[in-house]
Structures are given as C-alpha cells and as structure tokens.
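FYI - complex with tryptophan, inputs then prediction.
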Amino acid sequence: MEPKEKIILTGDRPTGKLHIGHYVGSLRRRVELQNSGLYDKIFIFEADAQALTDNIENPEKVRQNVIEVALDYLAAGLDPAKSTLFIQSQIPELCELSFYFMDMVSVSRLQRNPTVKTEVQMRGFSGESIPVGFFTYPISQAADITMFKATTVPAGEDQEPMLEQCREIVRKFNNIYGDTLVEPNILLPENAACLRLPGTDGKAKMSKSLGNCIYLSDSADEVNKKVKGMYTDPTHLQVSDPGHLEGNTVFTYLDAFATDEMVAAMTTDYQTLQEMKDHYTRGGLGDMKCKKLLMSVLQETLEPIRQRRAEFEKDIPQVYEILRKGCEVARETACQTMDEVRRAMKINYFQDQALIEEQSRRFASK
Ligand code: TRP
C-alpha cells in the first residue's frame, strides 16, 4: 500500500537499563527525528512481551526494567507530547494480528532468519527446545511494525533480517487480501561507529553480562572510571610509539560522540578529531590524553540526560501515567488497523451488512 503518512515505529526490549550503545545506535536519532517535524506520527514502545519470550521465568526483571527504560527514553529527550510511548503487552490487538501472520510464514523461513539463528546460539537453546514464542518473535515483531503502518523503523543492523521478514509478510498479506498493510524501511545509524558500539573492553558488543557497558544512568564518576579502564591499542606501550586506531575503543567512542567543535573547544592542540588521530598514529600522543578528551565529551553529552532523569525520577507515578496514556493512544490506532485487517480477511461478519443480506437471500430461496 502507498503510505499516506510518514510514520516511525521502533522499540527496545526492557531487559536492562539503556547504555550509550543504545544511545548512539538509536536513541539519539529518534530524538532528532522526533524534533525534525518531518514525521506525522512517532511510536516508541517497550517490547516487554518480546522480552518475556526468553525471560518467562523472570518476569520481575522485565517489570523492573520497564520503568528504567521509560526513564531513559524521557531523559534522552523523547517527548510524550510528540512521540507516543507505550508498552507492547498492553496492546492485545498485536496478538491477534500475529495469529494471522503465523499462517503466512513457514518454519523453514524462520529457521533461516539470521538474527534468530545467532540468538538461539547465544542463549544455548538446542534444536527443538526453543520456546515457540521465541522462535516466532519475528512474526510478532512484524505485527508491531505493521499495526502502526510504520514507514520508517530506526534500528540497528541486527534488525535488518526482521524488517526483511516483515516486508515479506506485508507483501503476502496484501497479495492475498488486497492492499491493506504498509512495507516498512529500516533507518540505520549514520556512521560505522554508531552501528555497533563495542564494549569498554573492546569486545564486539556492549552487554550487561560482559560488564562492559556505560549506562545512560551512570554517574559522572562511574563514567570516568570506566573510561580510564578502557581498552585501547595494546601495541601502544610508550607515548612515542605510533598508535593504531583500528579496534581502538577510545577512538571508536570518539567517532560516535565527538564533534569537531567539541574537539576544538576541549583540547588546546587540535581543531578536528582527525588532527588528533593523525598525532596518535604518528606517535607522541598518550592514551590518557585521549581518554581525558573522551571523558569530557561523554560528560557534555550525558550530563543533560542525567539531569532530566533525576527530574523524572522524582515523580514516578507521572512516568507510569505517560506510559498509560501512550498505550491508550496506540490502542486506538491498533483497533483501527485491526478493523481494516478483519474487513480485508473477510472475518468482520457483524459489520458486513452485504454478507448478512446475501445469506438471507440464499436461505430464503432454498
Ligand atoms: N527486537 C528489538 C530489539 O531487540 C525490539 C523490537 C520489538 C522492535 N519489536 C520491534 C524494534 C519493532 C523495532 C520495531 O531491540
């Protein structure tokens, strides 16, 4: 279907507080998109039901993190007056749509989904012990996206296979039932550093279990301590040694966070980040100087977020109220889409006056 409106939808599983990888990978962009005024509607949601697909024995974890993530959203600058913030489990229509989508996807197609494959391995599920709900979450995610007729899904590259599968479902649905749903596009982060921010230890990904995260809610002291301990270039032993940027986490973070204006304002020797990189690779620039700059850069970015978080933390009932209202708004859209879906699928018996009349005539002429 040709979309009439530009609609953003995206979300996170509330399994932990959000870290700076989430921030550069998606959150910062969402706030920019929200404030750009280019979109007709913006839906940001907490995928708590999806989080439960592999946390079914640990509902408390999800419940605790729903409020943490909401605070992170608000602290980062998502504004409930501009974006609808809601919780997946409170929209029962999502289950309904998933139920019909399940008839349009084969087991082998799900098995081929690269994200599912890696996640199955990561969680150590073997063969047929995978929970059905976990295995089929790409289908439920397609429902999340299409329910709101999203045209644009800002997300990390790991979500690309989900979007691909979603588009397949949309095409299949529209082919069978006529133009109803909208094919979404993914909107990836601008630069490579933001695509997947490594952990402070240099490992490929920030993750709570590896203990290599910098959280949006960390204090300035915690951030500085973590930066001091960061992985750099193991071959850069003396200040005079030439340093390497490749795989050097401090520079990856600078790429993700530092603008040239920040570099010029916060150092005495460089106008741009490139000048500093050149000095580092030539030799003669120590790691600690680079880390000091990173501390200032992170401090400048995170301090306003921290302050907003502290404000919202003072009134937690209000934060739940923001989410409750968001759910109400999201549900209106969901009910509208489900009406259209039921009509297209010809399961809207009681709204279909023509059906009732047709059946009356058929039985009358018997
Ligand atoms: N799978 C996403 C994640 O793990 C969360 C998510 C669920 C999502 N439904 C979505 C993201 C729909 C974008 C669109 O972070």
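Strands lie at 7-12, 41-46, 84-87, 152-154, 185-187. DSSP finds 17 helices and five strands in the chain.
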